[in-house]
């Protein structure tokens, strides 16, 4: 069996498996999530008939996501059909996710969309490891801020004011780094210690890489501004999800440390010790000792 056949078989098997998953739960904001919020999605637009050419094209396009390869798995976009039956799709994986995990996420996300949204012209699904969206309208290179999905941690943060003083600047710094990415990846990860506590905030931000720098920055700025008026405010972690961008923060590291763009600064104690060790060599020590002996002889 060739790789294409294997991938398509995996897609259809996943359809059966996900049909057995516990039903999604609705939230007060846009969309629904699985019970653990590993997948959240929102369907919109006019409804279609299951036998329409549009839905046939949609299901074929979603199935093609399982065929991504090493060169295009991080960001994939494609269209299928013509005129009113044309479907446009965009898929991107989280910036620290390996190819196999990315493909698995695409497959699972496509199955959920096929089961829950295929009778509507537009939808987006946010997974822990990827985002997939489709529309009957052009979406490539166009910033889309809505719908917005909030996924808060169940836990409130301690030291709220100190936490906020670190969180927003951290997200802003990471947003600037992500927006400066290339046409395949606009992603940044980093962490920061909350002063006066033993708590560290770990965060990732990401834009759809077809956006230019200005639109990526604008999308993330809007998402960060949403914190204060959302269920995320005051929590020790959470996600704000938009079709074109998203961010996540937690009080424990959840991403690959290799992608961390904000390494911790060395502590002052370590820095001073290193400096002294480097500068005081054995020869320098004996020269200093000889000088002291000479001074002592002259005085006494």
From TrEMBL:
Top-level taxon of the source organism: Eukaryota
UniProt domain Gnk2-homologous: residue ranges: 35-139, 145-254
Entry keyword annotation includes Repeat: yes
Pfam families, per the entry: Stress-antifung (PF01657)
Annotated signal peptide: 1-26
Matching InterPro entries: GNK2 (IPR002902), GNK2_sf (IPR038408)
Matching Gene3D superfamilies: Gnk2 domain, C-X8-C-X2-C motif (3.30.430.20)
Keyword annotations from UniProtKB, A to Z: Repeat, Signal
PROSITE patterns according to UniProt: GNK2 (PS51473)
Name under which the protein is recorded: Gnk2-homologous domain-containing protein
Organism: Rubus argutus
